[in-house]
Structures
1.
Amino acid sequence: MTGQKSTIAITGVTGKLGGTVATGLQDLVPQLRLLVRDAGRVPRLEGDVAVMEYGDAEASRKALTGVDVLFMVSAGENPDRVHQHQIFVEAAAAAGVGHIVYTSFLAAAPDATFTLARDHWYTEQHIRESGMAWTFLRDPSPHAERTYDMTGPEALSLTDMARIIGEAQGREVTYREETVEEAYASRAHYGAPAWEVDAWVSTYTAIASGELDVISDSVRALTGRSPMSMADLLGQG
């Protein structure tokens, strides 16, 4: 596309991640398309606005027509998320999108301990099979030239995190480990559906499994800046 102006579309611009990406691209991209579910919630950003939802194939295809690169922030957690993603990816391919950048999850796999990481793996598969070029923002893989993990500078245990939080707040903070049975029992009072409780508990069992013990230099490689440590982040407050 030498000599042409590329149009980049971004989903989730009313949220923190999509909004941050859109803001960062304001002065870098000549043509930006902001994809939202509610036109009344569009942030104060320069760019064309298109209304769509992941599960709406027709609206998605219309919103993506003329787009060269799509930055796809994953949909909110729900039991139908993979199907919604599939519809959207197929709409992107039908609209002629050339490259899709998808915000996946660290250690995404069909048998990942963290249940929602499985959603991301299946979404990745749909994207791989779509014919579009792709980039996944998650963790190392056999396709490492287009897959990036976005980790901090160190691997921390929950005990480490409690210590760092305590140091930042000037008080003692401790982490108490639960059994899986205790974890389910302590969350029962929320009345959440089973799939959601499974996801909550599996965040901790995934940490315990070691699947998330990954440190990479992708942040520096992509941005030229060092990733922020948890201590630095808390120190900003």
2.
Amino acid sequence: MSETEQAKWYILHTYSGYENIVKANLEQMIENNGLQSQILDIKIPTETTIEEKNGKKKAVETKIMPCYVFVKLVYSSELWYMLTYNTRGVTGFVGPQGRAWPLEESEVKRLRLEDVVVDLDIKVGDNVRVVNGPFEGLIGVVKEIDNMHQKVGLMLNMFGRDTAVDMDFVQIEVLK
């Protein structure tokens, strides 16, 4: 098994507002110590929302999970020490007694930490169930498909009305 196959996603807890500082410090640590084969990816999950202030709309990027940084790495006690004690702003790993606890594959998919290419056998008019997100559990009808961006346009029946929503392929499953 290669090192990239052994790598798993872990969560680092940080001080409030230190997420970007921790990410920058980790990237610098990787470069200085040649850890590219051990620390493969660092993510801070964010979403873009539209806020209106004084009549002007502005796109604002907000953190989905403040105080957390997600790191894909090949775990070792040396890395644990480097990340928890030598990185400014890190309070420790998320897990029992501060020990690193890897995320399950289902959690990685739900948090969309990795860009997963999904090959869906789907066509316009198919019925699908939403399996992730705010509309979880609702059933809708496919109205359009964007294979390039891995998105699908659905019509969901909410509160007695049909509502158009866009979903990622990973958020739906086709009903047979």
3.
Amino acid sequence: MLPNTPTLPSFESPIELLTACHDKVRRFASLCGRLAEHTARHGADGQARTAAAGIVRYFTVAAPLHHADEEADLFPALRGLGEDVLTATMQALEDDHEALDALWEQARPWLEAVQQGSAGAAPAALAQFAARYLRHIEREEREVFPFAARLPKPTLRAIGQRMAQRRGG
């Protein structure tokens, strides 16, 4: 008998899927800090190269899709609720996406160098990126995602379908 493995959310449950993405953000953001510490002690060894590759892959491929899910689908649907505080929060989060992108562009070259086997000191932008991302997703989960329960099921289904299409599904 196979051990029980947790069932991953599907596109039928887009908010659960976005939350699962946040769990991956938490994992990769914390890995950024551990990688900086590891390379300071051990250089860009095999473990460091593997970790850097995972971080680069996640924040280059998955994170931009996640931002698009929010900015193109979820946030516009939630704006329809007419909640001024929610709308202001979503605008601040969209602005934060831009700030996160800028920090990523500063941190990414170091991660790519580690992938290639070279490691100097990690840039301050790496720690700033990880910390800001963690604050960002906590705010989304606390101040935005709960409002999704007020969206009609067909709207949520359409958001999930667009998320799947964005990923080629």
4.
Amino acid sequence: MGRCSNSSLVALAIISLAGCSNTPKQDARVETRQPSPRASTPDAQPVATGVVQESESQKFGRLIKGVDGRSVYFAYDDFTIKHDHHQVVAAHAGVLSKAGKGAVVLEGNADERGSREYNLALGQKRAAAVADGLRALGIPADKIEAISFGKEKPRAVCHEEKCWAENRRVDFTYKLK
């Protein structure tokens, strides 16, 4: 074989190896089709753009914001819900009825007068009275917990009626189950 034949064979080998490269060549004539925005499958769900889904805890936080800090107050040595506090209980019942997995802890409190044991019992009776009110408005018992702090968690600290009246209350503490 001559010199010309060897170079022709080498050139032919290079050309054939180039055709075997691993990268696929794209044909300019190949079209890629996007599905039509109107095309749908039987199980396709419409997608709302720009709508953010509210989480359970966000919804719960939004609901309790309207009743945050609204307590039920009681007369001295009493655990009967006053008529003007029925709307507070109803507002909290409204939150609980919309809250899904939301629950409430009712914290009964008393003023500083009386023994520790007496005030714990009175705080428990106050919390139980509010729990009864919520159940009467359709709130399931498993969403309600009633506890007493007695005189251990005063909201106001002075030794006169204006502070005592502030401390005779049931507070609402919400939680997600």
